[in-house]
Amino acid sequence: MTAPVKAPGDAFPLMQAGSTTVGQNNADDWAKIFFQGLIFNPGAGGFVRKGVLHRGWVVGTEPQELKVLEIANGPNVQINPGLFVVQRGDVSGTDRGVRFGGTLGTTPTQLNLPAAPGANSRYDAIFACVKDKNIAQDAADPVTSNGVYYDYRSGTVGAVLNINGTPGTAGAPPVTPDGYLLLAVIPRATNDNTIDQAGILDFRRGATITGTPRMMFPYDIANIGTDTGRYLGEERYRPAAGIFPAMLDRWDGTTWRGTFSSIALAQPAQTASGNLPANTAVSVASGLVTIPWPGVPYKIRGYAALLWGAAAGGARELVGEINLDSNVSYTPPSGGGNTPPASALGWTSSNLPNGGQTELIVTAPLSPAITDGLQHVLSFWIFAPPANSVIATVLLGYSYRFALEIVPA
Question: Does the N-terminal or the C-terminal CB of the chain have fewer CB atoms within 10 Å?
Answer without folding.
Answer: N
